[in-house]
Amino acid sequence: MPVRTGEHVEPVGLRELFCRAHQIHDLALPHAPATACLLRVLVAILARLTGLDQPGTSVQEWNQRRTDLLNTRGGLDPAGIDAYFDRYTWDAFDAERPWMQDASLADQCRAPSGINALIMGRPSGHNLCWFEPDTDTDPAPAPTDQALWHLLINHYYGNPGRQTPRTVGGTASGQGSAGPLRGTLSFHPLGRNLLETLALGLPPLTDDENTVADACPWEEPAVPDPLAPLPPVTWPGRLLTGRSRHAVLLVPGADGTTVTDAYLTWATQQPRLEATDPYLAYRTDPKAPVETRRVPRLAETGRSVWRDLDALLLAGEENSASPRPTAFTTLNDLPADVRDALRVRVIGFDQDVGLVKNRLWYSALTPPIWNWAQEHDPDTARRIRDCCTIAEQLGHLLGKVAGRAWKEITSPPAAARPHKPGAKDPAWSARARAAYWPQAEATFWRLIHDTPDAPVRPAFAADAVRALRTVSTASLSQHARAGEVLAAAIATLLRDPATPRTSRRPHKAPA
Q1: Could you tell me if residue 455 is left (phi over 0), alpha (psi between -120 and 50 degrees) or otherwise beta?
Q2: pTM of the model
Q3: What's the confidence (pLDDT) of residue 485?
Q4: From the CB of residue 163, how many other CB atoms can be counted at a distance below 10 Å?
Q5: Which end of the chain is less congested by CB atoms within 10 angstroms, N or C?
Q6: How much is the average pLDDT of 10-28?
Q7: pLDDT-based confidence at residue 414 (cuts at 50, 70, 90)
């Protein structure tokens, strides 16, 4: 795994990574979703190395032990690291227990899936070639380290639907389900060095009693039976590393430096178990059915990080419909120097959750923001909530108003027809929102830093009006009714919903 110390980037193994975690500044993987996967694996291992995985520990003792870990300057105990890593198999090509793989796939699948099916971004089957000049007729081997990144990505973000058929006992199937993080947006605390990052990312101690012993996949005595009921999602090992829906087996090249082929298929046919990932922000819809009421925020390629700051900074009682990720609920009692430097790494993979379509992955870093948390600066936290809420309201209203105006100007009869769910947005809707959000971001930071007492809604309404005028300028000279329709649309954007509308009908002007 590539890591960064200052400006120097070098590859290290897991054992060396933990021995030098207090000196390494950060991970340096080039693929954002691989970073999100690896952070979950590393945090689970850190919990084992530090004893912070003991469910019988009191909350106060757990918090104090983590604070002591954050205050340490000498790093982790090398003897403890060696004892843990000597206990398990970490060989990617081990004949019996290859790491995070299932060696039985070579017998249970009639043929491998192809290296292109493993590497995200490569075309496989009849898919078009977008990112790399590889085809199924001439697949290029992947360097082993890169293949391991994509091994993790498939475990967490893997595709649903048709996969390589696998026969286990009397069950033969080629259908699988999506990975547990598919299409989601992850939030990870980022410290000043890797040890601090992993300690900050430790999921909080839960009150649930584990009915079975917690284990990560490499700690299991044997590869789980794919037809057996799933074990409970225990804390923290199975929660962070044991919820994959995919089974993978890498086929090494002659010297082990490359992977030439891979098996990629389903790992279980059992229904997925409910679990709250500690790095995801969930939305709660009280009107939805109970089984679908809580859904994670999904990644959107065009969505800036500031639009989700309210989900991080507001405490649960202030933001009950969208509480902060649970990994952030225990950060309020941090040492002052740690809190002042804490940033947030945001990682998104824009995918269709129910379809085999991967659009784009991305990552972003916030400035040090934890001093704005509601527990430390409630006024700024509420100001951020108000700005985020009103900016979203204006962005949604702008899309509706722009679409309706476009229909009325270009095709008056169509204006009376309702907009069908799932129908493509009118041309102005997407263009107006694209023009609005960069302006809204500048307005957001101005309202937070420069004019903290200025009214919020008029500022974002002005951005919405400016965006609408930007996309409609050419129509003013091309369509007779453009001026009238746009004036009404602008009035709608500037109208404060808190001001009651008059019930008096306007006088109808003569034709």
Answers
A1: beta
A2: 0.88
A3: 83
A4: 24
A5: C
A6: 96
A7: very low
